[in-house]
Amino acid sequence: MTPTLVRRHLPHEDEAPRVDLCARARDWSEIQERMLVPLYETVYERLEVGPGTRLLGLGCGSGLALLMAASRGATVTGVDHSSPERLALARERLLPDTWGARARAGTRLVDGSPEDVGNASGAETPAYTLVTAFEPIGCLAGDSEGLGGLLQAAMPLAERGAPVVLAGWGPPERCTTSSVLRVATRLADPLRSAGSWRPALRDDLEEVAQRAGLRPDGSGRVACPFGYADGDSAVRGLLSTGLFDAAVAATDQAQVDKELSEALHPYVRRDGTVWMPNVFRYLIARVP
């Protein structure tokens, strides 16, 4: 899947859309996206993100990570070409009237690729001091495809030695959600290798960084539990990731909803909430 917690797997091009993409984007921003807040906070704290930071977010989605960086005083630019619906929500978050003209002037959201960032401004801008690709890879076959190209396109926009942050799923034994994601693989067309669940590998992030010409310079792990108010919220949140779209295309929405709900049953607590502990990993690499 092209870079967007979380790559979306769409039906064949000749099939009619089978999901409401606007509703899906809203579920992502209201339910699922916050699950990665500990990851964002840990990275920003480690890299001392603040008023002197110029951040370029690749696959920025609905913009929560950018909003958190902006609240620290960073100047942020988000790039996303895979979900106009999520990007529209990012605009609502990051470009409201309440921010004031000064704050809005430094915030940019680009529907496209890193190459389009310069074109969008119409003028040369200072180099970025931090590049992030927070959408986790490493749980689906082929989910890193395209990320290397995005990173290579972003490097000319960043200053030499600038940190580039990649994120990935942790070991399956430390990610409860891995067992639920197997439902998507079992229901999806077995002929589609891309999008099939696979165990996260230790060097997934390093391999992507090295292919892009980046120099690894540290890593870490962060606990990011997936917690939901009830089973319905859990189903909606997980579906919003796009990780189950291939299963929906191969079967139908009702079947996926039913089997996803059953897979979540072991993680439903007595009060009806759903709790799935997970560990995510991040890599800090440097622009040569």
UniProtKB/TrEMBL annotation:
Question: Does Methyltransferase appear among the keywords?
Answer: yes
The top EC class, named as a word, is transferase
The source's domain of life comes to Bacteria
Keyword vocabulary terms for this entry: Methyltransferase, Transferase
Looking up InterPro entries in the UniProt record yields:
SAM-dependent_MTases_sf (IPR029063)
Question: Which Gene Ontology MF annotations are present?
Answer: methyltransferase activity
The keyword Glycosyltransferase is annotated on this UniProt entry: no
Q: What is its EC number?
A: 2.1.1.-
Provide the leader sequence positions.
none
Give a GO biological-process term.
Answer: methylation
Q: What name goes with this protein? A: Class I SAM-dependent methyltransferase
Which species is the source of this protein?
Answer: Streptomyces spinosisporus
